Amino acid sequence: MTKSGIKSPVYFDLRVIVSYPEVMELITDLLYDLALKDDQYDHVCGVPYTALPIATLLGVKARKSMLMRRKEAKAYGTKKMIEGHFKKGDSCLIIEDVVTSGSSILETVSDLKREGLVANQAVIILDREQNGKQNLAANGVYIKSLFTMSEILKILVDNEKITKQMGIDVINYLNDVKAPASVPVVDRIILPYEERAKLAVNPVAKQLFSIMATKKSNLCLSVDLTSAVDILDLLEKVGEHVCLVKTHIDIIEDFSDNFVTQLKQLAQRYNFLILEDRKFADIGHTVSLQYSKGVYKIGEWADCVTSHSLPGDGILKALNNVMDCANRGVFLLAEMSSAGNLISSDYTEATVKMAAKYPEAILGFVCQNKKTFNEPGFIQLTPGVQLESSKDELGQVYNTPEKVILENGADVVVVGRGIVAAKSPETQAVIYKDTLWKCYMKRISGKLE
Ligand SMILES: O=c1ccn([C@@H]2O[C@H](COP(=O)(O)O)[C@@H](O)[C@H]2O)c(=O)[nH]1
């Protein structure tokens, strides 16, 4: 019987490996190559108890500080659940021996998060392939494993350590018996913004959740106008109704530093944040320059920016380095609203995984689907919205507020021409704001049809 209560014809007892120094050393080397050689963490933490000695060896090999999670808080002294020296926001790689349902890792993650640590990556020796990986991913924790059960079975059959029939029986068993979601997955869709603000790691994400809750607005206005004066006029009229203003700074014909000063003043007066929809997409070095230099000096005034994940995680590393993550953040493009775009489901999945490596820099994702991610501290920003579903002549696809919020999981909804091109943008902004908020209220009350 495994810890998750699943009856199993196959059981791997990795507790015994402590008696074999050469096995311990080999496993440490393999885990190091898999998870620590190229990735940076402040700490490692083993899931008690089997993984503790492995975490110790890994910490020593990688010259990383180790944290120790207690199973129960001490009744005396410090009463700490996590022993070791760390500060809030430090990242921690979790080490585990075997994953069945993923519940032990989630217990450790929960204690680490309670102390303000960022814990969303784990490295394990054996994945029993019984839904643990999926349960963990649904809770925003991503695992790398040295072996899967099917790989081990193949090795055992190929080396005649077990019969072929036994291998087939175990594979059939694995296919039939999956672990239930042993720890309830927190569904971000039904959590109120106030609660999600507490779970966000990036401070701008926290602020955006709080602004939405205070202003009762999940409307992001895309001010796609080419005149600075027109933009400022529009924001004077609609600023009080929006939580976020999205710019394309490079389409403004009369851009000046004074425009930025006035935009910031309006943001302050009406309590909204500014998102520059720059969609960075170059190598890390170029993006650091595009973010901080040039005519626009985006980093000086935009609370957040958008970025593609296409060039690989160097782009996030660059933004993470050049940005002040206490006051700035990134929305990563995981999907697009336009018809025929080339983003595949693998690309979307890889984008979400990439974000998990830089949680302090990421506000959330520009995406179209509620299943794209589930981490409640991240925000789903969804463009391509008008009151009626339609299309424009250049491939933009519009869904309705009901569809994007109730069915597709949007947290913040981007509206551009639906407001900007209306006869009375002010009246239209109020209509969008009220409609979007009503949908959100319906969603969190659980009254989904
Ligand atoms: O997938 C995407 C990503 C970004 N956008 C941007 O949002 C607005 C939408 O404007 P509408 O006038 O409401 O069509 C625009 O600035 C796009 O660059 C997007 O539409 N789709």
What does this structure look like?
With 449 residues, the protein is an alpha/beta fold. The protein has 2 domains: 17-176, Rossmann fold (3-Layer(aba) Sandwich), CATH 3.40.50; 193-445, TIM Barrel (Alpha-Beta Barrel), CATH 3.20.20. Helices cover 40% and strands 18% of the residues. The chain contains 17 helices and 16 strands. Strand 11, helix 14 and strand 12 (362-366) form a beta-alpha-beta unit. Helix 11 runs parallel beside helix 13. It is elongated and about 75 Å long. Bound molecules: the ligand O=c1ccn([C@@H]2O[C@H](COP(=O)(O)O)[C@@H](O)[C@H]2O)c(=O)[nH]1. Residues 222, 224, 248, 277, 336-337, 366, 383-384, 396, 414-418 line the site of the ligand O=c1ccn([C@@H]2O[C@H](COP(=O)(O)O)[C@@H](O)[C@H]2O)c(=O)[nH]1.
What count of domains describes the coordinates? Answer: 2
Parts with pLDDT < 50 across at least 5 consecutive residues: none
CATH architecture of the largest domain: Alpha-Beta Barrel
Q: Bound small molecules, which ones?
A: ligand LLZGTKA7
